[in-house]
Amino acid sequence: MKLTFRWYGDNDPVTLEKIKQIPKMSGIVSAIYDVAPGKVWSNESILELKKKANDKGLEFEVVESVPVPEEIKYGGENAPELIESYCENIRRLGKAGVKCICYNFMPVFDWLRSELEHKNDDGSNSLAYNEKTVLAMNPLESELSLPGWDESYTKAELKSLINKYKEIGQEGLWKNLEVFLKKVIPVAKEAGVNMAIHPDDPPWGIFGLPRVITDEKNLDRFLKIVDEKENGLTFCTGSLGARGDNDLVKMAQKYAKRIHFLHLRNIKITSEREFYEVGHPTECGSIDMFGIAKALVENGFDGYVRPDHGRMIWGESGKYGYGLYDRALGATYIAGLFEAIEKCLGKC
Ligand code: DNO
User: Fold this and answer.
1) Which of 175, 241, 168, 152 is CA-nearest to residue 208?
2) How far is the CA of 288 from the centre of ligand 1 (A)?
């Protein structure tokens, strides 16, 4: 496995120098953030990003994300053209040495939380999700700003978008995902890139919108649409693990070779559809981090790993979920976990 760290670019208070100082850190996970979804990234901007990382001794082999425009997801008339631009981004990234692209297929909203500064007993704070609070916030009326909440839409645009997805439903979304994969995966194969879909976070439909990357049954269905290595997964433990009925250790065993990117994050489930994010080690939360890592190593996982969301600790403030300290602690925990498992392979 290769240990990586998400970097949000020059404005990220967590600098490349700091990232490089984390033991065993091989590279960054980043993206071109100032280009709208559906547009082609310039070769110059890709190479500039790569150079910035390389100059600090870090690799740039993972992109998170190349966003999928809504029109591809709901199957609008410009979808074929937009898919072609998406393919062009894959070609360009592959040429620049990128080996893995993370993306998601969540309608309208990306990851959602109801609370950004949930107070933990130890004085730290972290992101939390409470379904009742989320559902009480009508996205068409709410003035709230939450992660995953795209504020660039007008209320009318948002309404029409939400209605489009309600019309197509789950099966319509599956169909559009199939159209996308059948075009994109052959291009990725040729470009030497593994595509890694991120699970829906949380892994169930919200506000009547369909979500499909949610559980084992649906992951099986997803992987079969194009049954090739390049059609793979980002295994995000905090996302899939929010559902108590998802057996993550079993899924890790089953999908190890199709998992190209691993997001390790632990959460504490407090009740049905209610959780908050905790420190990475197994005993901090509800997720068996050791069991998952062991299942992956034993079954041939050979991908990139990054510590996912951290808490805010030691008085740090910054981008929610993406401060330095707790993610760095997570990274060293992950490095230790893998070292122990790899060295004991077959013996522990
Ligand atoms: C949240 C992230 C997601 C993820 C995208 C991938 O912290 O895990 O925003 O990057 O869903 O497309």
Assistant:
1) 168
2) 21
Q: CATH number of 2-110+168-343: 3.30.450.40, 3.20.20.150, 3.40.50.1370, 3.40.50.300?
A: 3.20.20.150
What pLDDT, in 10s, does the model give residues 40-88?
Answer: 999 999 999 999 999 999 999 999 999 999 999 999 999 999 999 999 9
Q: 169 and 210 in contact (C-beta within 8 Å)?
A: yes
Distance 77 CA to ligand 1 centre (A): 27
CA distances from 133 to 59, 98, 186 (A): 40, 39, 42
Separation between Cα atoms, residue 136 and residue 108, nearest integer Å: 18
Domain boundaries defined on the chain: 2-110+168-343
- Ligand 1 centroid from CA 154, angstroms: 23
Q: Specify the residue with its C-alpha closest to ligand 1, atom 7.
A: 309
Residues in the ligand 1 pocket, defined by CB under 6 Å = 64-65, 102-104, 110-111, 198, 263, 309, 321
DSSP string, 31-43: --TTS-TTSPPPH
